[in-house]
């Protein structure tokens, strides 16, 4: 066991960065706290996992409270409550199944972490860096489509303005001809009418009727052209997240009775069962995976994905905590000193992550999390060299 000062310095900073990652991308404390506490501080696997679970539960509560106050979160999930609640059942069943395997294989996991804990952190660092690059490429493609839609809209608006000007010219000409007709139809009293003038008047009245008919036709054509051009603009401009689509890649509407939607519901049920089983097997929260799943397949914004990832991660971690108290024998009086030391660091990181999470875009968040893991990798290598 390393000295308490070394623990505070290394694990405290790790708890701070883990708290930031938890708020921004639903990153569990497990990925930093468990490898570093085993490699550097010499904790056992059960003690290290218990600390990560306790910190996750505490910071999840704070993160959910802060994110729920954001209007983007409330607006993002207002139409999906039924679907999101249905996913809880396979998640719970998977977590319980994973916990049944926990005690059988966790010692092998501990040996692997003691040997290669630092390289696991390097693996996570590379993964997040790759996610940042991939997100940047996809964002550029979406931006190009959006810019193209805006250009098409501007072009259609110019066409509409041109049509309006032509209609106004026709209306002006019709108004002038109508004024001339009124002057002829309302002569002075001293004016004597002969047959030639009557013929002229009849011709003018017939021309007035033709002009009015021509005007009505032009107005109908103008309205038709406006509606067609508006329809074209609406179909060409790419839609933003939200109102009529749920799954981004599949463009499916929120129709719970459709067969395609039920198939995808089954797919997500299997994915959540696997996530719960994996989370129970290692006693950690796969909030990051679930957050990315929501962002990619649901077109949710990063804050909404983080909120949902934290929500489901809280459920998994709470079940794991109950399992620890009932089935495992841990010296909690020994751990309380170290756990209370990490709590302030983790809470500060959570609050700071909630602040900068609204300032950073998704690409920067991925790069930042990658940087955190690179720092953890360096610390783990330093700890191994001291053995």
UniProtKB/TrEMBL annotation:
It comes from the Eukaryota. Coiled coil: none annotated. Residues 211-228 have a biased composition (Basic and acidic residues). Keywords: Membrane, Transmembrane, Transmembrane helix. Residues 202-235 are annotated as: Disordered. The chain crosses the membrane at residues 45-68, 83-106, 118-135, 261-278, 312-330, 336-358, 365-383. This is Transmembrane protein yfca. It comes from Anaeramoeba flamelloides.
């Amino acid at each position: 066991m390393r000295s308490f000062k070394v623990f505070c310095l290394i694990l405290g900073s790790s708890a701070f960065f883990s708290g930031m990652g938890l708020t921004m991308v639903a990153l569990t404390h497990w990925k930093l706290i468990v490898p570093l506490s085993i490699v550097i501080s010499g904790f056992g696997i059960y003690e290290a996992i218990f600390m990560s679970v306790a910190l996750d539960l505490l910071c999840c509560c704070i993160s959910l409270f802060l994110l729920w106050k954001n209007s983007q979160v409330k607006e993002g999930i207002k139409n999906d409550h039924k679907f999101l609640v249905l996913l809880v059942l396979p998640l719970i069943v998977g977590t319980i199944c994973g916990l049944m395997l926990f005690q059988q294989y966790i010692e092998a996991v501990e040996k692997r972490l003691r040997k290669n804990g630092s390289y696991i952190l390097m693996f996570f660092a590379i993964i997040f860096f790759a996610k940042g690059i991939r997100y940047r490429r996809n964002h550029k493609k979406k931006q190009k489509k959006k810019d193209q839609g805006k250009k098409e809209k501007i072009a259609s608006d110019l066409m509409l303005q041109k049509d309006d000007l032509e209609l106004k010219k026709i209306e002006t000409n019709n108004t002038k001809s109508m004024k001339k007709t009124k002057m002829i139809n309302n002569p002075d009293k001293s004016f004597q009418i002969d047959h030639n003038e009557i013929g002229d008047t009849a011709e003018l009245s017939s021309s007035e009727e033709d002009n009015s008919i021509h005007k009505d036709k032009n107005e109908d054509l103008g309205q038709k052209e406006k509606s067609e051009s508006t329809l074209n603009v609406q179909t060409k401009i790419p839609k933003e997240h939200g109102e009529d689509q749920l799954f981004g890649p599949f463009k499916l509407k929120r129709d719970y009775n459709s067969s395609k939607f039920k198939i995808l519901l089954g797919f997500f049920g299997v994915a959540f069962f696997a996530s719960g089983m994996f989370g129970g097997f290692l006693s950690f929260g796969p909030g990051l995976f679930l957050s990315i799943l929501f962002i990619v397949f649901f077109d949710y914004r990063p804050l909404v994905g983080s909120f949902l990832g934290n929500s489901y991660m809280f459920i998994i971690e709470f079940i794991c905590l109950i399992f620890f108290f009932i089935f495992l024998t841990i010296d909690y009086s020994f751990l309380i000193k170290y756990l209370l030391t990490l709590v302030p660091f983790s809470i500060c990181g959570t609050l700071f992550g909630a602040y900068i999470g609204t300032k950073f875009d998704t690409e920067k968040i991925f790069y930042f999390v990658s940087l955190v893991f690179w720092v953890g990798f360096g610390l783990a290598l330093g700890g191994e060299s001291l053995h």
